[in-house]
Design the sequence.
């Protein structure tokens, strides 16, 4: 009896050891094809075009406005309790996010705090795209009772009451005008200008190169030895999945790894909240916003506003939210529009299963990847973190 | 024969249960549907905290946060104020409770555990209620016809914290086995299999027929030729830009005063454009300016140009590999 067990046990153990080795063996990734190299190049920071102009903001590229906007960004006096600034939730050390499921300011925000770096490339702001410019976005939290909880009157009074601010303001925009509230347009103009200065600062926040970008440079140069340095085999396999079987680049494309478009990916609702209707209501809010590109506070004399004029509406946008950039994604947990998923592994598991959406339709299809493949994808996502040296040179 | 009779009996028992007891909510194949009079909506309930993405049609496993979703199948519901009420079941009728029974309740508010005022929800209807305790409840959905003020209602009794699925799976397994055995013995299974395969072959043939005309000449439908240029350089993803369309008849005559509609998308991904582009200017000589074009993914796109003139209409599909 015992000898039979031994006879059987030997081969079984050998098979188990072989299987374990087979599962975890390291296979050199094959060389990239020309088509793949093209895709990789399209994702690299080297392909990032010049900042698109914002004709609705006349001071968008004025360094004086950026300097003024930077002061405003960090100034808690713009809040109801004097304790909240933009940087309360958009913390520079965390890639301008806060590490929380939902932003915590005067109250709790409705959604997860998105990063700001590279956002000047996006035609839409917020998870649901309810604003169409960086400056219109910057105004909104100031008056949100759960965020700054302030008012346009109070915000403009802070500018008028601070000599340095007043001087900066007047140099850029001229006199402050009648701020008593008797002339609501004058008050709105001054309020809009505050947003335009903050936006000028935010426009300067651009992503720095990561190990991924170094790797693509080496691949593009055909330098095999150089390719070994920045990337492990797992990371290279993960990248292969990222641009291939995992379908990530359907939405996370271009050098910022986002198409800034709206997609329903069937994420479960956040505790205590109804499922988020997302873009279907966000787009209506953007169209109705008095501070939008077509409104009277826009500086674009031609009112080009192509994104707003040719915007898509309708129920196919139910539950759709904006694709976030994946640059520095390892540093911006938790994930999804309400911070529902704590880790990158959770996010990958979610996309691997692609469950039916609670409202609307999940655009993603189940991937059916194995655990090892998901690990490799995660390893790749970790290479999108900007290197420390690059980060310091970009630091603000 | 006896087996078939037995199956017939059990099935009709199930069916009659479904037809009578479910009030305003019925399971139709794999879809749960709420009928508010003649108006229908896809109905589903989630308990995301305890059951994740699992959908329920009426009975709920736990006293927990519950999200009720109605996705309209009739557009009329998009513009109708809808209210939503959940009451404790005090009718004594259980699964057979109907609107008449609800109307006989003296103090409706007293037994109401959740009420949401009538509101127009143009896209999708959602409400949330956290049940404090298990028990039997009745949901009442009312939609108000804005013109006639007529109220349409649906009533659906349901249980929270139901004891489980009981012996149903066992019965179903027995039924399936009995049916299989019957089919094997009668030789029908083999005939079905044969029929099935010829069906599959048929659908392949149909696909082939559908695909074949797709090899039409690029951007041309016999009467109309469409070419385009992109003044800001070749189309790139994620950048809004303009196109210049050139419209000609088959013999090269520019087509003027046309009304042009442009739609499109990625056929493989089953989605349309991220924007809603339109022709904004006729530049003369059959040349038109198309604004608001943006592509948000690399891959294969199709741009469908519908051209209507006094002579008639033509549709041309422009393929584009990005």
Sequence:
């Amino acid at each position: 009896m015992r000898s039979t067990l031994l006879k059987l046990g030997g081969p079984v153990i050998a098979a188990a050891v072989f299987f374990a080795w087979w599962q975890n063996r390291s296979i050199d990734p094959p060389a990239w094809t020309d088509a793949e190299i093209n895709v990789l190049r399209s994702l690299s920071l080297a392909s990032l075009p010049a900042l698109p102009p914002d004709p609705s903001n006349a001071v968008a590229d004025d360094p004086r406005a950026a300097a003024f906007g930077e002061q405003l960004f960090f100034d808690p006096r713009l809040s109801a309790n004097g304790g909240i600034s933009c940087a309360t939730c958009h913390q520079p050390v965390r890639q301008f996010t806060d590490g929380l499921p939902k932003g915590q300011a005067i109250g709790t925000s409705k959604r997860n705090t998105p990063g700001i770096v590279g956002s000047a490339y996006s035609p839409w702001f917020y998870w649901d795209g309810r604003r169409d410019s960086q400056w219109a976005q910057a105004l909104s939290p100031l008056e949100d009772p759960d965020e700054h909880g302030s008012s346009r009157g109070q915000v403009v009074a802070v500018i008028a009451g601070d000599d340095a601010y007043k001087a900066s303001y007047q140099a850029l925009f001229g006199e402050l005008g009648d701020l008593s509230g008797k002339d609501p347009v004058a008050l709105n103009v001054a309020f809009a200008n505050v947003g335009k200065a903050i936006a000028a600062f935010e426009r300067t926040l651009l992503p720095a190169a990561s190990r991924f970008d170094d790797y693509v440079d080496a691949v593009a140069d055909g330098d095999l030895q150089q390719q070994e340095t920045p990337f492990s085999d797992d990371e290279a396999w993960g990248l292969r999945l990222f641009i291939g079987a995992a379908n990530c680049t359907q939405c996370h494309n271009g050098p910022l790894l986002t198409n800034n478009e709206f997609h329903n990916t069937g994420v479960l609702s956040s505790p205590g909240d109804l499922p988020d209707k997302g873009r279907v209501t966000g787009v209506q809010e953007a169209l109705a916003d008095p501070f939008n590109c077509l409104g009277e506070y826009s500086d674009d004399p031609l009112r080009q506003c192509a994104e707003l004029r040719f915007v898509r509406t309708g129920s196919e946008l139910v539950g759709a939210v904006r694709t976030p950039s994946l640059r520095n994604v390892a540093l911006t947990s938790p994930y999804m529009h309400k911070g529902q998923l704590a880790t990158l592994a959770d996010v990958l598991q979610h996309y691997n299963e692609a469950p039916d959406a609670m409202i609307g339709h999940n655009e993603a299809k189940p991937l059916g990847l194995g655990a090892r493949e998901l690990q490799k994808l995660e390893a790749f996502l970790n290479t999108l973190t900007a290197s420390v040296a690059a980060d310091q040179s970009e630091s603000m | 024969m006896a087996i078939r009779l037995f199956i017939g009996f059990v099935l009709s028992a199930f069916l009659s249960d479904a037809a009578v007891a479910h009030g305003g909510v019925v399971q139709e194949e794999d879809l749960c549907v709420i009928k508010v009079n003649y108006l229908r909506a896809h109905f589903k309930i989630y308990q995301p905290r305890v059951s994740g993405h699992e959908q329920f049609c009426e009975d709920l496993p736990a006293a927990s946060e519950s999200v009720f979703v109605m996705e309209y199948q009739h557009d009329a519901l998009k513009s109708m104020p809808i209210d939503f009420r959940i009451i404790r079941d005090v009718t004594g009728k259980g699964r057979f409770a109907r609107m008449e029974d609800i109307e006989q309740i003296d103090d409706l508010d007293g037994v109401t555990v959740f009420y949401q005022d009538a509101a127009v929800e143009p896209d999708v209807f959602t409400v949330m209620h956290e049940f404090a305790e298990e028990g039997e409840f009745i949901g009442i959905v009312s939609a108000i016809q804005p013109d006639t003020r007529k109220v349409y209602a649906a009533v659906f009794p349901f249980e929270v914290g139901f004891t489980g699925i009981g012996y149903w799976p066992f019965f179903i397994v027995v039924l399936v086995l009995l049916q299989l055995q019957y089919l094997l013995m009668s030789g029908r299974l083999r005939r079905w299999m044969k029929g099935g395969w010829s069906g599959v072959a048929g659908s392949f043939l149909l696909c082939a027929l559908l695909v074949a005309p797709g090899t039409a000449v690029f951007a041309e439908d016999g009467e109309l030729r469409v070419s385009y240029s992109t003044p800001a350089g070749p189309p790139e993803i994620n950048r809004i830009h303009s196109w210049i369309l050139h419209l000609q008849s088959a013999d090269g005559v520019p087509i003027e005063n046309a009304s042009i509609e442009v739609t499109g998308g990625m056929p493989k991904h089953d989605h349309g454009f991220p924007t809603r582009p339109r022709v904004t200017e006729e530049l003369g000589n059959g040349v038109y300016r198309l604004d608001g074009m943006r592509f948000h993914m690399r891959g294969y796109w199709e741009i469908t140009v519908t051209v209507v003139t006094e002579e008639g209409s033509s549709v041309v599909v422009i393929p584009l590999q990005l």
